[in-house]
Design brief:
homodimer; 396 residues; alpha/beta; L-amino peptidase D-ALA esterase/amidase; Ubiquitin-like (UB roll); 8-stranded mixed beta sheet; 7-stranded mixed beta sheet; 11 helices
């Protein structure tokens, strides 16, 4: 159950820290550590980009044995496109962290985010790891969340408390990401911890499913990143066990995890680089779910639509255009388009509605665009934001 | 043979006009007519968008009989997503033009470009058609080219003179387009005329091939339009005949047509909305031509790359990222990337080169980016431009 205005804290048996190691030139926080007092079950979902960062490769290798004690993160440098030296740096980051925490290197998961290309400054990272281990505590979640940020304007934290078999269970998630955000993962990192006990196979399955419905449904600029990573650690400290044989408990846990991932994903879109509007694109009535998804993504990723949403002119023609070139069956004459509850297009042409009503409908900061294709039962939703001049300024 | 500083004129037997019919609110030129004194062979290539404008549907129908006397164009309103009323307007535009020119409606090809959604103002169009017919002349090519513009900052005209069997033959082309430009056609119109005689089947074939190598290789913003149209009229007035049985003459004609289309396409990219840099993306060494094409388009359409090219920072990591998510096989460790002749990436990591050299290489207004995948012999080139804050301003 979600509690409003709840203070964010870790589940039992987790601690963390966030420090400045001098990787970012402005001296802001740039290294984070999330630590479990006991060995936790671990699972991960990673970028599908063929060009992926050294820490992603390392995490995949470490998760072949699905247990971990710690997640260590640096921001500022992505350690992507860094070749053999980059792989050595990622491995060193794991082994140095393991030394500090008295665990095995394979029990450390490593993440990096930031500039692609440069090598990690391993001297700074080394000193940073010592400082991280020294300052690890139960109440450092704010600085931990801040230390993983890059172009984010605010940190992203979510918590859910549930009851499993009479035992209190918590799930806490952190995320970062604001640009290079595209379905199938993005320049985003998300770390979820829980004090429930979950079997590795089940943990991987519920995480993958939650990611599909959340992080894989958002897009800021259509660029898939080299470093996207979602990790979950379940340390069992609460004593509660999530089992698929217990449908009620399993359902409660899955729901909470889905909500955590969804909320974090929405926070990322809302913090989209330079964006000031949150846009939900729903496609209904496609011939299949896949086609609904393709049509929704075409609209959400269309630069002409994203720039239109920076204004208040109801440019529904650009939506028609985008679904027309999507790899989904479209019959122009059957298309209806709604801004919120206001119908802008009926049967492929402008609905009988005044320009004033349409401008009002399209001026909502939280814009819901619903497209009915009228061809079948396939439905899909994608969450995105507008593209403003500020996006260009940030990315020049 | 291309002649420099040559004055642009129509081939023999063509005339044209351009007027203001009051469709555009600022009173600028918004209707154009291209007219052949005799019935010409005609061919066309159109948008692949499933949502296509009424005039596109009408042109396709009229070209079932591949002959035409005239092309009539309006700018300001696209007559797209206008349903049955829009089809009637397009047909009326053809029949009214035919009345003025004393030809059959089926011999008139109609094009519209501009805003999607509104109906054509048929009263203004009707008066405009009379004015167009009244002012048609051999020396009105400048106003004709201007009258088809929308967000273009300059008109686009190209001419080639060749000799076929001792006879002088001319090809003259006009185009418009600056935004919504994406391979597989864009919000662009192009009209090519020639006084050679070419059989319908041959004309369609050489036009389709020329379009594939030119208009289908450019991208401004990745948005395919509802109205894209390339038309060619060959009226035979020169007396010269293009025949595939005459390889020399056929080759000269095809070369000239390819050059016309390529030059017009490059003019469109160079006039990309808000753009101030011209970027050529070459992918070599892909497993196939199709994969090279997909990788080149991923880079050219990546918003992060397009915004990077608005600055002078050598952000080659964004190129690596884009090829990594392209639907083309990429082996990170084999990738080389060059800015002009300067190698930025060698084997997937930064080449041994100073930042100064790299900044210098990436600061060229005409930027050539060459990507070697090292996997095969597939090669492809895409022409694009950068994305600046001005693009957002234009499209809000």
């Amino acid at each position: 159950m979600k509690k409003e205005n709840q203070q964010i804290g870790w589940p039992k048996g987790f601690r963390s820290s966030g420090i400045s190691a001098g990787i970012k030139v402005d001296g802001s926080l740039d290294m984070a550590l999330i630590y479990s007092d006991v060995l936790a079950t671990a699972a991960g979902v990673f970028t599908t980009n063929q060009v992926c960062a050294a820490p992603v490769k390392l995490c995949r290798a470490h998760l072949k044995e699905p247990h971990a004690r710690a997640i260590v993160v640096n921001s500022g440098v992505a350690n992507a496109c860094t070749g053999k030296a980059g792989m050595e740096s990622a491995a060193l980051m794991a082994s140095q962290t393991a030394d500090e925490l008295a665990c095995l290197p394979e029990e450390v998961l490593v993440c990096s985010t930031g500039k692609i290309g440069p090598q990690l400054p391993m001297e700074k990272i080394g000193s940073g790891l010592v400082a991280l281990a020294d300052s690890v505590a139960i109440d450092q979640i704010d600085v931990t969340a801040q230390a993983i940020m890059t172009t984010d304007t605010r940190s992203k934290q979510v918590v859910r408390d549930i009851e499993l078999g009479g035992l209190a269970v918590r799930l806490t998630g952190l995320a970062k990401g604001a640009g290079m955000i595209e379905p199938n993962m993005a320049t985003m990192l998300a770390f979820i911890t829980t004090d429930a006990s979950v079997e590795p196979g089940v943990l991987q399955q519920v995480l993958s499913s939650a990611v599909d419905q959340s992080f894989n449904r958002i897009t800021v600029d259509g660029d898939q990143s080299t470093n996207d990573t979602v990790l979950i650690l379940a340390n069992g400290t609460s004593g509660a066990v999530v089992e698929s044989m217990d449908p009620t408990g399993y359902g409660a846990f899955v729901t909470a995890l889905n909500e955590i991932c969804f909320d974090l994903a929405m926070m990322i879109v809302r913090d989209g680089e330079g964006a000031d509007r949150f846009v939900t694109v729903v496609v209904d009535g496609a011939q299949s779910i896949d086609e609904a998804d393709l049509a929704a993504r075409a609209v959400a990723n269309s630069l002409l639509n994203k720039t239109a949403w920076a204004g208040t002119y109801p440019d529904w023609g650009r939506i028609m255009d985008a679904i027309g070139y999507a790899a989904a069956q479209v019959d122009e004459e059957r298309v209806n388009i709604f801004y919120g509850t206001t119908q802008a297009v009926e049967g492929g042409i402008q609905a009988a509605i005044s320009m004033e009503e349409m401008v009002k409908a399209v001026s909502e900061v939280e814009l819901l665009i619903r497209i009915e294709l009228g061809l079948g039962t396939g439905s899909a939703t994608v969450y995105t934001c507008n593209c403003t001049e500020a996006y260009v300024q940030i990315n020049v």
